[in-house]
Amino acid sequence: MILNASRRVAWLLLALSLLANGCNKRHGLQIDDPVPAVTLPDWHGKPVNLPGDLQGKVLLIRFWSLECTFCDKEMLLELETLYQKYKARGFVPVAVNAGKTDPNDPRLQRFANLTYPMLMDERGLVGRRFGVIGMPTSFVIDKEGVLKQKITGEAGLDEFEKLVTTVLY
C-alpha cells in the first residue's frame, strides 16, 4: 500500500516536471531576440535576404496566406499607405505569403502595384523559424534587426502605425 502511494507520488512529480518544462519552452522569436537571417524569393523569383537587404530599416513583417480566411487581404493594400507615409524615415513593410501560390493567380492582381517586398514562403520554413503558428502574424523589427513587437491575429492600420512609429522614434 505504501509502495503504491510512493509510486503515485513519483509519477505525479514526473508528470508535473514534464508539464512545467513544456510550458517554459520558447517557441519562435521572443521580444528582444535578433531576427534570423533568411532568404525568400519575391513574386518574380528574385531572392531577398532578411533582414540583411533591408538593414537599418524598421520592418513590419506580415505572414499571411492567400488561402487564409482570417487574413484581411485589404491590409496589404493599406500597408502601402503606411509605407509611403514613413519610408523616408526608414520603414518598410514586408508581406510573406505562406504556402505554395502560383504567381499568376488572378487573385494576386490586386497586389500588383504594391511597392514594398512581397515574398513567398512556399514550404513555411521561414514562418516556423519565426514561430508563426497561425495567420496572420506580424513582427515589428527595429533597425538593428531585433524583434520589438509581435501580433498574432489581425490588427488595424492604426495599431500597426502606432507600433511602427514607436520603434521608428
Automatic annotation (TrEMBL):
InterPro entries: Redoxin, Thioredoxin-like_sf, Thioredoxin_domain, Thioredoxin_ResA/DsbE_sf. Keywords: Signal. Residues 29-169 form the Thioredoxin domain. It comes from the Bacteria. Residues 1-20 form the signal peptide. It holds the Pfam family Redoxin. This is TlpA family protein disulfide reductase.
